[in-house]
Design a protein that fits this description.
The protein is α/β, with parallel strands linked by helices. The chain contains 13 helices and ten strands. Strands 1, 2, 3, 4, 5, 6, 7, 8, 9 and 10 form a ten-stranded mixed sheet that branches. Helix 4 links the parallel strand 1 and strand 2. The radius of gyration is 20 Å and the shape is globular. The two termini are 31 Å apart.
Length: 327
Amino acid sequence: MLDRRRFVALSSAASLAPLLADPALAQAQPFPNRFVRLIVPFPPGGGTDAIARVVAGKLSAIWGQQMVVENKGGGATSIGTDTVAKADPDGYTVLLQSMPLAVNKYLFATLPFDPVADLAPVSLVCDYPNVMAVPMSSPAHSVQEFIAYAKANPGKANYASSGHGTSVHLSGELFNKMTGLKLQHIPYRGAGPALNDLIPGRVDVMFNNIGAVMPLIKGGQLRALGVTSLKRAAELPDVPTVSEAGVPGFDVSAWYALFVPARTPPAVIARMHADTVAGLADTATKARLEQLGVGVIGSSPEELRVHLAEEMSKWEVIIREAGIRVE
């Protein structure tokens, strides 16, 4: 689990003053002087999209220039990520990425970009748990009951995900590994289509992000069995963690972060980071994000670099041991 206090404590915008006072930057036309693209490598309609629009709206207000959200789903987020990796390194094309950036290197034989060399970190925006949710028609009312149901129906039980390499997918794979189950993975092109099949029971379970499923749980369309982090979610206080509900040690915490193309000028990254941290500290913006079930962070670029390296190391082992490969 991320130490949020460590991230926040080291993210003071004041430390960026020398970069922002760069004479060369001051002489140039200030960034940004036109609209900025925020590439979201997921389809619209899920929790990622909601987070992106909150962040983009606040940065637009700070800059006085529009940050335009562009959904570029497909290729397990590789299409949208490659768009940013190959964009001009001027700060006008930004990426909002998540766990796929840390895992696709180990899922695919080749990628059109290098997740470390081709992208520069800006800030870790937030982290959040997923929720293990089943249709209301499911016979399972607890994690243990679901495990029993899956064992009684070998080869039939399945789980939906928003695509290969997402935290939703890997939560299911970790669940398989730790329970000895063999739930079949059913990937979709985004959370929206997956939820559309989960609600009527065309798939058995989904470990989806809390922001997307919370309204459906509170609205009586889905049943929550557990949250994937080691700590219960404040938004669903009566829902146990998967760990305490029958799979000890189960822990998946997903995240979202901003990146720009490598070789983007340090002064531009510094400005973008400072404004992101300021935006996330805004009371209204923070409240809107927390309503989506996320924990707001606002890290420094270096902290995000370290976080990405740690995530890549962690999930490489899980993917290799589970023998997961995407063709």
